[in-house]
Amino acid sequence: MTTPIADFAAQYARTGAVRMHMPGHKGKPVLGCEPADLTEIAGADELFAPAGIIAESEANAGRLFGCRTLYSAEGSSLCIRAMLYLAVLHARETGKKPVIAAARNAHRTFLTAAVLLDFEIRWLPHPAGADYLSGCMTPEQLRPLADDPPAALYLTSPDYLGNLCDIRAAARFCRENGILLLVDNAHGAYLKFLPESLHPADLGADLCCDSAHKTLPVLTGGAYLHIAAHAPEVCKSRARAAMGLFASTSPSYLILQSLDRCNQYLHDGYSAKLRDFLALVRALRGQLSESGWQLCGEEPMKLTLLPKAFGYTGTALAEILQNERIFCEFADRDHLVLMPSPENTRAELHRVGHVLCGLPRRSPLTDAPPPLPEPERAVSPREAALSPSEVLPVRQCIGRVCADLSVSCPPAVPIVMCGERITAGAVSCMEYYGTEQCAVLRQTGTTAT
Q: pLDDT (tens digit, 9 = 90+) per residue, 242-252?
């Protein structure tokens, strides 16, 4: 498979050209990557109006994923905003009110898009027994949407803990009720290359995004927006404009080359490499289970431990691993998330297993997180974000309206959404997960509209 972007950059670096263009480093190495770092010079193409090497590379990616694929050099966050913009466009074109139903484990980018686009959100209730990071809805839980169908349904799958939604069933429900299906598949680019694809583009989603950098050998920031063949025409015709609306006009050429090189990597035997690696992950999962560790989640390339049953909090376990020079993806009091990939060696997986299985088992920790709140909407996310606010200790926020969009990343999933009223139960949850302060609307003054 061709790698036109990377080939162009390499050839340009070899010519010894006098660079009277951006960037200012002029190809002189400090980090070492500068000779390959370009801007939109002649022949380099333009990401949001491609007619040459970028268009060719995106077409290569589209063939790999089986749909129309556009590159992002700004992560899935850019793709999420573009998807939601396209959903609003489709709603207006078809005479619908721009209402988007969403599971409450949505990434904070969903809220920033709501601020920018001012669509109405219909939050779906938390599934019974779920924590704030989980939002996999069953067809039965989606059924009430049929009474008053929203313009779109937005799901996150896989979620941060490795839970997978039944995207095929959700897609069938959406088709039957005239609802667009949007999927944040940031953690699941590799799902396309399983023996039986679990990628949302193959399971019926209209639009989905992948953070290529999360699970594939791509530089941080590399992502894909996928548009299915059955997606509405406006989603196809305006997808490029949607990406350009929210993106920088100076996308990283290093990230684009990384996405370009990844096409060849995926084409040249990745499925077999993934199959062999997942066998090692399954073996490690089995080893951990036999040692008494509890795990959750169905995603095959993620290991999510529930360490309290073994006598540790997730944060304490993360510190133990860090002292062994093993760094996890995410930890809170209840979970520890490990995200291996085929670029990890057998020896590295063995090291993880050796450390975890060598820890002494302690008495189980029995404290549980408080019940998740279902806060009431006070104002729209847009009104809350554009109104005067103040930052207070969370205990002083009870009864106030949340104005906070800046939840920490990872996991970047709010407990209370911008525009919702903060209850005592919500504060208990925030304190449990380590939130000490929150931005709330000021009680005096006027609010923006």
A: 999 999 999 99
